[in-house]
Amino acid sequence: MTGQTTVRTAVRVHGRSAQRGALRAMLDALPTHGGRLLLAGEPGLGRTTLLQWAAGSFRAGPVLHLRPGPEANPHSTAGQLLDTLRAAAVAAPVLVCVDDVHRWDAPARTALGRAARRLSTADRVGLLLSVASDRALDPEFARLPVVHLDPLAPARAAALLDDVTDGVAAPAVREQLLAEAEGNPALLVALVRRLSPAELRGHRPLPRPLADAAALAETAGGAPTGPSAHARDLLLTVAAAGEASDGADADAGLVRDALRRLRPAPEPGPGPDTDAEPLPEQLVLAGEGLRFRSPLVRRTVHATADADRRRAVHRALADALDGGGHRLTALLHRSWSLGGPAPAPASADLLAATAADGAVPASHRLRATAYARAAELTADGARRAERYTAAAEQALLAGRPERARPLLAAALDRAAPAAVRGRAELLRGMTELRDGPVGDAHQSLLLAASLLAADDPAEAATAALAAADAAWAAGDLPACLATLAPQPQPQPPPRAGHPSHGSDGPAAARDPVARTAVVVRDHRVGMRALLEGRLDRAGAPLGQVVRRGRTEDRPETLLRSAAAALLLGDVDAARSGGARALAAARHLGSDALVPKALEYLAYAELRAGRHPQARTHAEEGLRTALRAGQRNTAAHHRAVLALAASIEEEPDVVTRHVTAALDTARRHGLAQAVTLCQWAAARADLGRGRPFDAADRLGLLVLPGPGRGHFAVWRLAVPCFVEAAVLAGRHEDAREVLTDFADWAAFGADPQAAAQLARCQALLAPGEHADALYRRALDRHDESGGDFERARTALLYGKWLRRRRRPREARGRLGAALAGFERCGAGVWAAQARDELRALGAAPRGPGTGTGAGTPARLGRLTPQQLRIARQVAEGATNREVALALGVSTRTVDYHLRKVFAALAVRSRLELARMVGQAERAQEAQAAQDARRAGHQEKTGAQP
User: Fold this and answer.
1) Is the pLDDT of residue 601 over 50?
2) What span, in angstroms and rounded, lies between the C-alpha atoms of 583 and 80?
């Protein structure tokens, strides 16, 4: 250990909210009944820290820490131990903490496990145990409820690192520490402790390897070993095979073959039967795969092994793989069998060439490992930087940005050529675009474009277009336009057999690089024309991008095709391009591109009004984005989920997704996601009959001023704002934005805009013109499709007709609205349609149509109009707000409210709110009971 950095104790527990919630639930219940929990996690994940947190949080009684020791009887029976625990809880509930139970001897573990199982809830004893999950769980504890500890998420690990270092770590050092720690907090602290202050601040090179044998063994609690030489070789062979494996498993047949090569056949005669030996407790056999129970222990076994024996194992694995169709994996093991740290140019060149060969079957993850190993064996600085860059690119395609970042830091050698540094900056910018501040991504991508301009203009154009994507995400229109402006580019002489970049001839159609260059050029030209408001110049180049997507099979080009279709408002083409991009990315194993393809699919479904389909794509996109470490993409998926939930009867779901999305969007400058989230929250308010709240939220987004929302999104929210503003009495504000929206509708990029414009005009028009405008809006909806928007227009038209005393026509429009809302799952809007139909004296079927068995009888005496007013007043609305929301006069509200007070025998608005709240809770309880009954019938096959 050579470090000199003083690591202070972390001031708080980072992450672990789910685990702390489970512990808190047990602690809170202890005054009335006991509980048992088993904390399980690999070494270093913080089991002891959580036990200490629980002990410090418990205030209802004493805390006992049970440990085996010289003073304890190791042969205590379960009954004796149980009596001891019960006696301690006589006066007050007691929390018993038992750390590292796996270190106890077998009789003590047996007694403890039996005592834990025999504890009852009446004992008021909370038993909190911790056990390492790097070995099989003892049968004595198998029936206890388990709380599992996983590695920290990247954001939580970064917060811990800043906490223990006061944030002084250099960015490149920080990235490498986080990558090496792999979310293990104890290993992260051990690595920081190993560094000197100069190394931590980036003033001196970091030691290699960063996670050395000493740091790993310290975290794992020692160097794992086996009971025999065969067991030790088995552990090392599985660990070595895992260095070049795509997953946690090592092929059991390969391991057996390598062991036979490593240990020659024994002489005939009596001897130990190694095949009959049980597996070491650190390993588990799953089908044809062998894996370590703990990734940390696997790394520790490999790092702490004797160097000569480790090289021999890699040599045996390489020999076993030769000729078996695993060329790249065999070359990797062969390179690890080399002795000494000296460069090996021949091995490095062969490894890099094989990793670059697309005909060699290998995953992106394996190619990243091969390029990185080739870089380690390369002496020339420029070639080493180029190979580290290639490794980072493959790590990104594998969905491993935490691995790509330190590789890019190693690639940024100032002695490398501009093209190599430009490629590294391009990858860094793409990483930040998906999982970092988009302003930083914009600058990195602009730098990449300038570095690549002379040697690779096609790649420079790709970097510039990606920089425009970053400015778009940030909502920076001037930066977006400036980035898309045509720049004079030097044209290098075409290579033999390759057309010049940007040409459209037959040769370009055959060359993938040239085809990509043409797509990037057309997308840039069309996008800039669109942002400048010149649709006549945008349609042709963007249309070319869409059409090329119909014959392409590369996910990057297909993603551009889907994006271009969304810009043009061609949702069918966007869905097709997004679906083909998704299929291509999955086929190639490009995990980094799957979340983006799902994002475009979700946006296309949302624009088409197919909210359930948008929700399905966004849910899958959120999962894949989080797995791939793409927090920015995850924020966009959460925004889509919030918009989809805003039309349903799930206000809590909207709030949850909005809060989670804004947590990332505000820190990373994602103006587009912020605008979508605010629109979702406002639309949820509008659907629940809160036009004042909706108008306040949307006014900030759509009205002119510095706080106006994202330049490409705020217009989509205008129809919601106009509806809310009219209901809230803000007619002038509604008229102010309608001029801009009329220009947007004429632009033709949004298929719903023409119908929405006519609907907005009807809301603001005098009575003699509104009828025709509503009819025009419905005709436009018939042309553009989309159940949700058409149903909204029919609902507003039906309300207007009812206020004009045209009940028969109103009933038809409201019935159509109800059917449309139910078809697209818009529960909260369907409830509005039902209320309107009830006000007409109709009796619509569906959720919430009656008073229900749980509604107080007196509430059932109200007329439909009185019930609507009562609910609005119970939510805190004034009489004026109720009148505006229902489209009636204040005098009408006063009249009905007096009738409500008399019918319910209440004297104040507070009493009314209490009665309505009781009715709604009773109705929810009845619905839950009905759901449970239906579930029971479904399970048992009983008939209702």
Assistant:
1) yes
2) 62
The 3-class secondary structure across 346-384, one letter per residue, is HHHHHHHHHHHCCCCCCCHHHHHHHHHHHHHCCCCHHHH
Structure tokens at 258: 């390598």
Pair of tokens at residue 656: 């949850």
Q: Are 653 and 680 in contact (CB under 8 A)?
A: no
According to DSSP, the β-strands at 125-132 and 35-41 are parallel
499 near 505, Cβ under 8 Å? yes
Cα–Cα dist 111/414, whole Å: 64
C-alpha 182/C-alpha 703 separation (Å) is 46
Say how far apart CA 421 and CA 417 lie, in whole Å: 6
Packing angle of the helix pair 17-29, 47-57 (nearest 10 deg): 40
Upstream peptide bond of 268 is cis (omega within 30 degrees of 0): no
> DSSP assignment, residue 15?
S
**C-alpha distance across the termini of the chain, in Å:** 72
**DSSP per position, 486-535:** ------PPPPTT-PPTT--SHHHHH-HHHHHHHHHHHHHHHHHHHHTT-H
pLDDT, residue 473, reads: 94
- Candidate from 267-276, 680-689, 825-834 with smallest mean pLDDT: 267-276
Residue 90 and residue 58 in contact, taking contact as beta carbons nearer than 8 Å: no
Distance CA 568, CA 530 (A): 9
> What separation in angstroms does the CA of 265 have from each of 235, 262, 845?
19, 10, 80
How many other C-beta atoms are found inside a 10 Å radius of the C-beta of residue 216? 27
Contact 879, 888 (CB under 8 A): no
SS3 63: strand
Report d(CA 607, CA 716) in Å as an integer. 9
Instruction: Please answer whether residues 85 and 123 qualify as being in contact, where contact means their C-beta atoms are separated by less than 8 angstroms.
Output: yes
Alpha-carbon dihedral of residues 527, 530, 534, 535, nearest 10 degrees?
100
Distance separating alpha carbons of residues 919 and 904, to the nearest angstrom? 12
For the sheet containing 94-98, what is the strand order?
Answer: 63-65, 94-98, 125-132, 35-41, 146-148
Closest CA to 676 of 663, 687, 688, 665: 665
Give the C-alpha separation, 375 to 790, whole Å. Answer: 59
Q: What is the DSSP letter of 4?
A: -
> CA nearest 196: which of 222, 221, 168, 156?
168
Residue 666 in this model has a pLDDT that exceeds 70:
yes
Sign of the four-CA dihedral 490, 496, 501, 503: positive
Reported as a single tens digit per residue, the pLDDT across 418-466 is 888 999 999 999 999 999 899 999 999 999 999 999 989 989 999 999 9
- DSSP for 175-225, please give it: HHHHHHHTT-HHHHHHHHHHS-HHHHTTSSPPPSSSS-HHHHHHHHTS---
Tell me if 338 sits within 8 A of 376, measured CB to CB. Answer: no
Residues in the chain: 944
DSSP at 858? T
**Distance (Å, whole) CA 561 – CA 542:** 8
- pLDDT given for residue 511 in this prediction: 60
**DSSP per-residue codes, 707-762:** T---TTTGGGGHHHHHHHHHHTT-HHHHHHHHHHHHHHHHHTS-TTHHHHHHHHHH
pLDDT digits (tens, 9 = 90+) for 896-942: 888 788 777 777 777 787 777 777 666 656 555 555 554 444 444 44
Instruction: For the chain, state the CA radius of gyration.
Output: 33
Picking from 78-82, 324-328, 460-464, which range would have the lowest pLDDT averaged per residue?
78-82
| Residue reference for tokens 């890699």 | 314
Separation between Cα atoms, residue 764 and residue 193, nearest integer Å: 68
pLDDT of residue 480: 93
Q: How far is CA 754 from the centre of its chain?
A: 35
Return the higher-pLDDT residue of 470 and 802.
Answer: 470
